[in-house]
Amino acid sequence: MKKHIVTFFIVVISSLPFLNASTSIFPTKIAISNPIKIENPVLIDSTDFKGKTANNDYLLTANVNFPPHQSFTTMLISDSLNFFQFPKPLYKNTIYLTSFFIHNKQYENATLKITSTEQFEVYIDNKKVVDKKSTEDSLHLAKSAEKKLEGNMNASRVVIKQLSHSDSQIKPVIKIELIPEKKDSLSTFSFENSNKRRIKIEDIIIGKRVNSSSLSPSGRFVLLKYSTTNETGKTHNSFEIYDTKLKTTILAEKNQREQINWMPNSDLLFYISDTDTGSHLYTFNPINREEKKLITNISKENKYLFSPDEKCLYYSVTTTNERKSPKGLKQILAPDDRQDYYRKQYSIFQYQIETGLSQPITFGKNSAFLNDISSDSKKLLFTTNTEDLSERPFRKSSTYLLDLQTMKVDTLWQNLRFINSIEFSPDAKQLLVSGGAEAFNGVGLNIKEGQTANSYDTQLFIIDLQSKEIEPITKHFNPSVNWFSWSKNDNKIYLQVDEKDCKNVYFYQPKSKIFKKIALEEELISNFSLSKQNLMVSYVGSSTSNSRRAYLINLKNEQSSLLAAPYDERLEKLTLGEVKNWDFVSSFGDTIQGRFYLPPQFDATKTYPLIVYYYGGTSPTQRTFETTYPLHVYAGMDYVVYTLNPSGTTGFGQEFSARHVNAWGKQTADEIIEGTKKFIDAHNFIEKDHIGCIGASYGGFMTQYLLTQTDIFTTGVSHAGISSLSSYWGEGLWGYSYSSAASANSFPWNNHELYVNQSPLFNADKIKSPLLLLHGTADTNVPPGESIQMFTALKLLGNPVELIMVEGENHAIYDFEKRISWNHTIYAWFDKWLKNNSSWWNELYSDSK
């Protein structure tokens, strides 16, 4: 009997709402608009055709434009009962607009409760969510309307449209109450009168950004190209022409002019446009707006290059070498025969503008690729590639010098490996060649004995065409080269490079053999355009906390002026946390570079969960604002984010990058683990029991591998990760070719230690931390089976694991809605394991346990 009484007592007590209710949150001040007068309509009839009368309900539904929040200059302060009292209405029918913002820092639910004696409508982010149509004549009879809020509000603007009357016996009042589902100590909801909000994944995709800038030959005009993505994910391109003399934009339009660019020596733009009679190539004069058809019936599929004298146009023509096979079957000739380009043959064609003659410059079964045209337009460089599976990197290149006047061909070299691209010197007496350090029999190598160079760490060589002497100019230059140009204007070589976690621009003086860094405004220079007739340059760059901006710089004084920063308008509405550098000396004796991101409104007296992010492949984790994994977004959800560049990364010198080869986690994983431990020890605001790690592709492999090596990570996320080196090597479209660099001369049959012991799949029983596997179903780089087999292993082992497949997406996720859902999945997973909050995950995957 006593047992039943106790049980009944517990049930009754737990069902009492005031005992389980969370503490409500009330704003202390709100902004209101000036009163808006609204008139009763002239009553032609007592009802409309639907039988409705022109009562107060009718007046409340009147459309009102909501001004920007900052235009609400009057503030109301709440009383001791949390009510706001409005001024007595001046007009018979008065509409008041109330404006405020609701913020939270995580996925959580709450109920917004509005209490008033008046009629009102509630709008959140311009969408009506609830209304109250009754009026009361005393405060204690005031009724409420409620709306459940779910997820991340993040500066959601609330506007309450309230209808009041001058003949009312009481002043209009309103109470605004937020009731979180969580207990007050765990809730992050708040009211604010600021539209500044934390960044979210949509901000990384939506908005207008400058993509590139290019100077006209004289340096007077700058062509700026933009992309704009709207709220639905649709993107359109546009361009502007900026006049540096008039210091103004003289033309701006949506880009329907394909391949628009500058002519080599005149300040004319060329582009391809469609007409009823076909596609034609035009020139455009930005001064007088004159448009001239230059070439008729041209193919948009080709990429066109004008000769420097502007007399000829060069392009490639593609033919496909189809082989006989039974219907529905295909004989695979080589590993790369699964790729579209393998059976295509490319020939170089020349179009003479004066005569209209189009003729092939090369012919044969091997494809020919145009490298460069000499500044006098008399010589042409082209390269042919042949497959050679007997030795890495499984292709050889031969380069030829063609005299366009005599059509005489000189063979510069044949069957060399590790050659990337080639350019003439201004006087055409030398060549500037990019390639791996092993090119030209390793003359540019700068590694330790026993190492193999990382072929993704690009080097530069100067070759004298007469003496055949080869000078490896970047042998002792640590940054890795991405782009280069030998300027005729000042005979300097300009190069854009990966330098640690930045992209910088240097020039090299061939005579003095000195590199000098150019002082530019941003940390990541993505585009650099030289004027051919003076020392003016336009460039585009971004940094850790801002999107791409375009600048103009005079190289004489290295003074940059801003040309375009279209994303800054959106950026001004965002609150970003601080980014700080943090390096450590590893037990191997190296300084390992890193940085960390703090949440906005960071409080050093509190503790935060930590997310660790690391490189994919061999490229550094650069100081990028917009990436597939935007670190500011994670920080905006109250995580501290630590990223580092461990051994194997390019941009730190050949010896450092060579550590990537035949390692697959060795030393790199040790440094990530050591760095994470030292970072935690050095910062007392980290929750030591809530550490997550995340990476993609090679970084996805690294997540899986790390979880086999340590238990410091509470959970891990692996997108498109490699679980078995041997299956990736054989199945991925780039598996064996990427492995020619990452696993140089190592194969499943000659290096069991590497392919088995370094593969996370063969160590799956060591993974104890929860693992989220994400993979596109159409991934051709790292096939989805890499995640499927790890998922299967961990399921059989009974370890916590989830596998989310992104339908129809390849190695990266580009579809707008899928990209957002995919990111939300990651955030929900970290919430679940690093914040002990499963609500977001359960909302996304309701059947999950």
Per-chain topology:
Blueprint (H helix, E strand, L loop, with lengths): L1 H14 L1 H4 L8 E4 L3 E2 L18 H5 L13 E4 L5 E3 L7 E11 L4 E9 L2 E6 L2 E6 L10 E9 L4 E10 L7 E8 L9 E3 L4 E2 L2 H5 L1 E9 L5 E9 L5 E9 L4 E7 L3 E5 L6 E7 L2 E7 L6 E5 L9 E2 L5 E9 L23 E9 L5 E3 L7 E6 L5 E9 L7 E9 L5 E8 L2 E6 L5 E6 L3 H4 L16 E6 L5 E2 L8 E7 L6 E7 L2 E8 L4 E4 L6 E7 L5 E8 L2 E9 L4 E6 L3 H4 L2 E2 L3 E3 L2 E2 L5 E7 L10 E6 L17 H6 L3 E6 L8 H5 L9 H15 L3 E11 L1 H12 L5 E5 L5 H7 L3 H8 L9 H6 L13 E6 L8 H13 L3 E6 L9 H19 L4 H6 L5
Parallel strand pairs: 13-42, 46-47, 46-48, 48-49, 49-50, 50-51
Antiparallel strand pairs: 1-3, 1-5, 2-5, 4-11, 5-10, 5-12, 6-9, 6-11, 7-8, 7-10, 14-15, 15-16, 16-17, 18-19, 19-20, 20-21, 22-23, 23-24, 24-25, 26-27, 27-28, 28-29, 30-31, 31-32, 32-33, 34-35, 35-36, 36-37, 38-39, 39-40, 40-41, 43-45, 44-45, 45-47
Helix pairs in contact: 11-12
Protein model, in words:
The chain has 16 helices and 51 strands. It is of the alpha+beta class. Helix 11 packs across helix 12. The protein is globular, with a radius of gyration of 33 Å. The N terminus is likely disordered.
Taken as a percent bin, the fraction of beta residues is 35-45%
How much helix is in the residues? 10-25%
- State the total count of DSSP E strands: 51
Instruction: Please state the overall shape, judged from the principal axes of the Cα atoms.
Output: globular
- Mean pLDDT across every amino acid position: 92
